[in-house]
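User: structure tokens for this one?
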Amino acid sequence: MEEKIFDPFADFQSCKLASGFTLQHLQIDRPFVDIRIAVRTGSLEDPVGKEGIAHFTEHLFSQNGNLPLVEMIRLFKLGINPGSTGNEKVEYSCRIQRKKEKLVDGLRHFFSMYFGIAKMNGFDQQKKIVLEEYDQQNRFPLLAQHSKTIGNIIFPGTFWSRSVSRLGTPESIESFTQDDIFEYWNKNYHPSNVTMITAGGITIDEIASLLDQTIGDYKMPQLKTAEDIKKPIIATLGPVKRKTNIHTYNKKDLYGGMPIQSKGTFTSYAFLPMEMTLYKLSILSEMLNLLLLDSIREKLGSAYEINASLVSDIIAKQIKVNSPSFNLEIQDTVLSTIQENIDSLPFKSDLFEDVKDGKIVRSSSYDASVASILSRAISDTMDYGSIVTQAEKIERYKSVTIEDIAECVEYMQPEYLLHIIEI
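Assistant:
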């Protein structure tokens, strides 16, 4: 008889709150309740000319509660994240004691920040703070301009071709008005665009009732028309044959004359069709990584570093090969070794089965902490539109074939690859 795996992802329950939010809840025996809110719009969807608006709006969260931030941090003794901005989402979270009076008080203060963003308290102060953050991150103007040039080559027509960080640009940050933020908040913080996930020692009916009571005191973000709910069209990047696929840059003059003691770097990008599943690409990237580790060290020595990884977001699915210890003398060896291993992938059936089996085993053996479960649940809703159970995940890995790997390799031939060399 097949052993039953622990699968908390199968135990999530869902309901619609009176406010319009969809709630996903996991009842689990803990003396606390975790609250996660993920706004399904991150930096990659910042409008042209308003780069950084997702991050800036997140800054206002901590400034507009019904208590000063320092007191909020004291109140949420078990933990609070007053905002983090990613490529595809902005996330807020807190952990509150399960006792009803603590939950009521904690929820009231937490959501006072979420809905308080529209009050715009601290708008001018936060603009100065974000500009200071930008200056700290981009102390070397020539290096920042270089990063933007690279971004335009790798990710043309996307956020990364316009900005070197999620903060935006000094020009876009300066351009923000309170009307811009209010319009952005109304559209993107609307319940229809938010994933709300909770977990803890409380039933879904109990937490839904408390949330309805708490959120009912606030005015919802308002959409002007039904059309406002539609997402902007985001430029996506798939495989394309390239006229020039090797770009070499000398970085020694980009640090304002400061000496740098670093080796060159080599990064190779393979853009795969967006419809290819992450399960196929995850197996492929691990196979390639293992092959490269063996073959490149055999040719260049055990100290040589190289790795392959899968990078996926709303604009691209990439297999990325990176070497942080590169020099031009070994360029031909590195390029030929990468391609040899890519071409060998469809014929490595034993390795394929080993890697796939490893994925299946790890799918039933994972960090079972509440924080990790909630993070995975949110990632699932972003990647697949719903929480994927462990059983479903295992079946999806099982369905991948060596022919799927061969299909991917068709888009990883030399004419499709993009290589960035920085020395």
